Amino acid sequence: MGRAEKVVLAYSGGVDTSVCIPYLKAEWGIKEVITLAADLGQGEELGPVKEKALKSGALVSLVEDARAEFVTDYAFPAIQANALYEDCYPLSTALARPLIAKLLVEAAAKYGADAVAHGCTAKGNDQVRFDLAIAALNPNLTVLAPAREWGMSREETIAYGERFGIPAPVKKSSPYSIDRNLLGRSIEAGPLEDPMTEPLEEIYAMTRAIADTPNEPDYVEIGFERGVPTTLDGQALDPIALIERLNVRAGTHGIGRIDTIENRVVGIKSREIYETPALLVLIYAHRDLERLTLTADVTRYKRGIEQTFGEMIYEGLWFSPLRQALHAFIQQTQARVTGIVRVKLFKGSIAIVGRRSENSLYAPDLATYGADDQFDHAAAEGFIYIWGLPTRVWSQKSRG
């Protein structure tokens, strides 16, 4: 097609992105394809992925360890925002896309590529996230999406790859589409496309079935500094280790399973299954600590910001001016969100059972009903009169 001469391709090692390599060269006349695989904590060996890209025709095969950046620059801001898309999904997969896009743009600059490419299809959210993030970071780059345009079935795609020496999958293909990173797993397609079909236990990998969870609860104390999780049970941990350990502890108790009907960016509804053990626990704990340390008006106002923030992540607008402005507001609110939250993990449930902070706005001498009560009870009657005055006037006028 003559769109570009050198392309950096987001590469996973799967059938679609592997076939993208010869397809870009044979069908669209791309001279050089550079692949980039991002290590975001998939839990798999990326060495074979690198070799597969080269065997599939890539000129250069890059593997970037982006786990630390993924947690600190993407997951932690989302936790500070208590970001839950449609009050449900903590955006484990969506958060990875702007980072991958950033790595693509950086690699394109380093290797002098005039285009970047991805293997997303036309019905998913990821195409939107990649295209918009790339446009925000470098609008001069061409974005190529072969799988969005080639119109091949799964069988035809495999056959096409075989023509160029790409082996077909050696085992029976799973009916599910699965994406995994350090923050969680997303599972869709196959039998799950029927919203009435209960997911089989075989689809889960990070969380136990409730019947297999321990019969004793696990109490974990999570320490936050300015809204960022830093410790578990008093032990300081680096961001990757903190997420990994909490994934295991929460997943052992069956925490983090989400089964939802989701509104995709392209306008269709889809049935999605997620496993996000640590991310869900951290959001719950962080939100509770905010209740202790933020004033009521800030807390209420921030809830609307959080909804918009989550929607913007989901819709691919991470690098947009509004998302960045909202991030600045959220960072301002986090100055006092330092403290410890005690969480009870048990039989699939997250229960906040304790919290403390040097910045706590909880005043025991005002809250108590005991002998230490310092609240001015005599002031209550006058307050209620003034507070209810508009309602009283309205009532009088309405009845008059």
TrEMBL record:
- Residues that, per the record, bind L-aspartate: T121, N125, D126
Catalyzed reactions per annotation: L-citrulline + L-aspartate + ATP = 2-(N(omega)-L-arginino)succinate + AMP + diphosphate + H(+)
Q: Name one Pfam family in it.
A: Arginosuc_synth
InterPro entries, per database record:
Arginosuc_syn_C (IPR048268), Arginosuc_syn_N (IPR048267), Arginosuc_synth (IPR001518), Arginosuc_synth_CS (IPR018223), Arginosuc_synth_type_1_subfam (IPR023434), AS_cat/multimer_dom_body (IPR024074), Rossmann-like_a/b/a_fold (IPR014729)
What does the entry list under GO cellular component? cytoplasm
Give the record's pathway.
Answer: Amino-acid biosynthesis; L-arginine biosynthesis; L-arginine from L-ornithine and carbamoyl phosphate: step 2/3
Please list the residue ranges annotated as the Arginosuccinate synthase C-terminal domain.
176-394
The record's top EC class is ligase
Q: Where is the Arginosuccinate synthase-like N-terminal domain?
A: 6-167
> So which domain of life are we looking at?
Bacteria
Alphabetical UniProt keywords: Amino-acid biosynthesis, Arginine biosynthesis, ATP-binding, Cytoplasm, Ligase, Nucleotide-binding
- Indicate where this protein resides in the cell: Cytoplasm
Q: Name any one GO molecular function.
A: argininosuccinate synthase activity
Q: Which family does it belong to?
A: Belongs to the argininosuccinate synthase family. Type 1 subfamily.
* Binding partners and assembly: Homotetramer.
Protein name as catalogued = Argininosuccinate synthase
Designated gene of the protein? argG
